[in-house]
Design goal:
Low-confidence stretches: 105-112, 487-498
Structural class: alpha/beta
Largest sheet: 14 strands, mixed
Number of domains: 4
Helix content: 10-25%
Shape: elongated
């Protein structure tokens, strides 16, 4: 303990000293000679070195009483200081999940989660803020037992590292914190204390319940299989090393590549705005704006391609295929004569929306025919319904109202059909070309025409559809060509695109 002061008079001697942290003031009191040592006398002496308001008068009273019986009275605390408070340390507030760090799922929570929807990361767009960095706070000064200020220690700066995919912005006006901003699209990770934005999400193994379905802003690479029931959605591309089993793949800006087989089980689906490449395809639905390339076989699948389908060393059998430019394969159909339908159409007709619209139009037209037959002669002259007696009149009037409602709905559908077709692009010549055979059971549609193969055609051979003439014809083998023609614009000119 450090020395503080010494003071005395003819009756008493007082020694004051501080604790090492200077927060406590102690005194030792020695009687010098006989006489009454009052609380007031002790206060008068100690306040020569410390303000009166800081002194514990109760302790002085206790010392005065004690001195009547013994001397000295030692190590009595008469004043207490206030310790300084260290400032709060700087901190990082993450605005998005860091994969593997902020994505731990509590066991209790897991009981209520769909294991396919784990949401283990957040998608981050270029320019999005991923974290705030708060500076340390100043400390609050303290006072020693005498009332002198004790300097407080400021908080510690937060240590944070990040790579070139992230930049730090200065605090905006009115904010104390700076921000970390992503320079790429991707997800945030913390690799051994260093933050980085990742444009590619890599799954080292199967996509199963340990990770769940994926919805990613960048590119996804899976080094194993995709198990049934899962969904992989990636903005900029999907690459899968294994097989895909009854799952869904969706990509809007990149290609989809599956090194293994896509086994749809009549549940799996692929949606892609660019090209798709598969080893094999079975019982799946594929909607692709680019080229669908398959190494071995397409079986029992429904395919919609706004470009063409290529199986140079394999075959397509059964199922339905809609294509703008056509299909090129080694074999089309099978020796067993399994029905395989191929529709050569424009870009709108190749889409799912248009086909669903056609079904609705057909159902509306069928309903109108049925109601018209029930109305009989009153269908053409509904004004005569007032001549009928009840309850037949009410029944037929209700049917007439229903027919009018369906006709109005049909008009809306027809208008939607006209709007869709106005943006359609066509390929001048669409082809079904086979280097091997086109088997009996293959049906090719082109416009209002169809070509049904009733006897196997030996290749190399092509069934060609000319959009301008609206004709289907069998020719010697010709490769697929894609040269789109859009509908005439207001100036009467046509736009070509390849």
């Amino acid at each position: 303990m450090s020395q503080g002061f010494n003071v005395e008079d003819e009756l008493v001697k007082i020694k004051g000293y501080l604790s090492d942290d200077k927060l406590k003031l102690f005194i030792d009191v020695h009687r010098v000679k006989e006489g009454e040592i009052t609380e007031a006398l002790l206060l008068k002496l100690v306040t020569q070195h410390i303000s009166e308001e800081r002194v514990d008068r109760g302790v002085l009273k206790s010392i005065s009483e004690k001195l009547k019986e013994e001397s000295p009275v030692e190590k009595r605390k008469i004043a207490q200081g206030t310790p300084p408070q260290k400032g709060l340390d700087g901190k990082v507030l993450y605005l998005v999940k860091r994969i593997g760090v902020d994505t731990m799922v509590m066991e209790q929570e897991a009981l209520f989660l769909d294991p396919r929807e784990m949401h283990l990361f957040d998608n981050v767009s270029t320019g999005e803020k991923v974290a705030r960095i708060y500076p340390p706070k100043e400390g609050i000064p303290g006072e020693d037992a005498f009332g002198n200020a004790i300097e407080a220690e400021a908080g510690t700066e937060v240590a944070i590292q990040f790579d070139s995919t992230i930049k730090q912005n200065d605090p905006e006006e009115g904010n104390a914190y700076s921000t970390l901003e992503s320079l790429v699209d991707g997800y945030l990770s913390d690799e051994q204390g260093k933050l980085t934005m990742n444009e590619e999400l890599q799954i080292r193994g199967e996509l199963d319940y340990s990770f769940g379905s994926i919805d990613f802003i960048g590119r996804v690479t899976i080094q194993g299989d995709v198990l049934p029931g899962f969904r992989v959605k990636a903005q900029k591309g999907i690459h899968i090393s294994g097989n895909v089993n009854m799952a869904e793949l969706v990509c809007h800006e990149g290609d989809i590549v599956v090194n293994g087989y896509f086994l749809g089980g009549h549940k799996g689906r692929i949606l892609c705005s660019k090209d798709v490449k598969l080893k094999g395809l079975s019982q799946g639905v594929v909607e692709v704006q680019g080229v669908l390339t398959v190494d071995t076989e397409i079986r029992e699948s429904k395919i919609r391609s706004e470009s063409y389908v290529s199986i140079p060393n394999g075959r397509i059998l059964s199922g339905k295929l809609y294509s703008v430019c056509g299909i090129e394969a080694k074999e089309v159909g099978s020796e067993e004569g399994v029905r395989t339908e191929i529709t050569l159409c424009n870009t709108v007709e190749a889409g799912q929306e248009y086909q669903e619209l056609l079904i609705k139009i057909e159902n509306h037209e069928k309903a109108i025919v049925v109601i018209t037959s029930h109305l009989g002669p009153y269908a053409k002259n509904p004004s005569r319904l007032i001549l009928l007696s009840q309850p037949l009149r009410a029944k037929l009037e209700k049917l007439q109202q229903k027919r009018e409602s369906i006709e109005a709905s049909l008009a809306v559908l027809k208008k939607r059909q006209e709007s869709l077709l106005s943006s359609a692009r066509v390929n001048e010549t669409a082809r079904v070309s086979a280097t091997g055979k086109i088997f009996e059971g293959v049906v090719v549609y082109g416009g209002e025409n169809l070509h049904e193969v009733t006897k196997t055609l030996d290749g190399p051979i092509t069934i060609e559809y000319l959009h301008e003439e609206g004709t289907l014809a069998t020719k010697e083998f010709l490769p697929i060509e894609c040269s789109f023609r859009e509908k005439e614009n207001e100036s009467g000119k046509e736009t070509q695109s390849t």
